[in-house]
Amino acid sequence: MTIARSLLLFGLAALFEIGGAWLVWQGMREQRGLIWVGAGVIALGLYGFVATFQPDAHFGRILAAYGGVFVAGSLIWGMIVDGFRPDRWDVIGALICLAGVLVIMYAPRG
């Protein structure tokens, strides 16, 4: 159950961080306004809290592993929200990153 909880938290963190960054992007680059930017800033702030609920107590490990989730999640977000189509190298890179998440977070220790 701990791994499932951890994966759920990584997914929630990705939703807040990637979604928040996307909202800021839309507000600034696509000129949708400060309300979009403000919503993005709030989402980014919520992302910071979500990581604190990870079962592992090591900040560096959590953030390093989350980096892989962020890479894959960003490609998925782009596909769903912006119609981006990753090429095979994007997919291979994301899979490598996700393999890194599994090793960093869930490999047996000590």
Task: Give an overview in words.
The protein is an all-alpha fold and 110 residues long. It is 79% helix and 0% strand. It starts with a helix and ends with a helix.
Sketch the major β-sheet: none
> Roughly what fraction of the amino acids lie in strands?
under 5%
Secondary-structure-derived class: mainly alpha
**Shape, principal axes of CA atoms:** flat
Low-confidence stretches: none
Helix content: over 70%
Distance between the termini: 20 Å
Output the number of helix runs.
Answer: 4
According to DSSP, the number of beta strands is 0
The helix-strand sequence is: HHHH
Mean pLDDT: 96
**What is the rounded Rg?**
15 Å
Explain briefly what this protein structure is.
The chain is mostly helical.
